[in-house]
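Lecture notes, structural biology module. Today: joint structure prediction for complexes of two components.
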Amino acid sequence: SAVISQKPSRDICQRGTSLTIQCQVDSQVTMMFWYRQQPGQSLTLIATANQGSEATYESGFVIDKFPISRPNLTFSTLTVSNMSPEDSSIYLCSVTRREGIPETQYFGPGTRLLVL
Amino acid sequence: GENVEQHPSTLSVQEGDSAVIKCTYSDSASNYFPWYKQELGKRPQLIIDIRSNVGEKKDQRIAVTLNKTAKHFSLHITETQPEDSAVYFCAASISRAALIFGKGTTLSVSS
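The predicted structure, tokenised, for the full assembly:
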């Protein structure tokens, strides 16, 4: 398995501000993903973080709102921009080891975000 | 795109009974189907998975079955215990190994 950490673990933010969430893995992984889990809901894929290139966003998510970086094979950031109360969610990163081949996805502990 | 439907949304059983959760998927190209268990305040944890070249997989009290023709797969938990109480999510893989999740099933096991 992979050891995944996220920072911050939780935060309370004011509307209109931005928050950057970090995801760090203890070993090189190929695929990194960002998910959102709204209160009492399932996980929704935001985007695939691609190393060295722009992230691939799912329908309903745009780069201006959720810019993502992945400078190397063990680290990625997700920024939630111009936040509103509707952005209050748990944000989770996940990783797999083998590109293009279904493989176990491991999830980070999540970042709990509350927007006032 | 892929869509995963999961039923039931809640399931209550007595300790020792069996529990079955069912999922259907829409994209016939999906070929990997994991099940995750999420306890309150914790991250999702993989409990079992199945690939499209296998019809059934078992791990102690947990089993998963896959019917590719009908595009549905099921989680079976036998001899349920109170610690099995959690939210269970099914998922299907689309291209690039990303997962599309069902809406979840809240399982309550009473002793």
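Point to remember: Chain A touches chain B at residues 31, 33, 41-45, 48, 56, 58-59, 92, 94, 96, 98-110 (CB under 8 Å).
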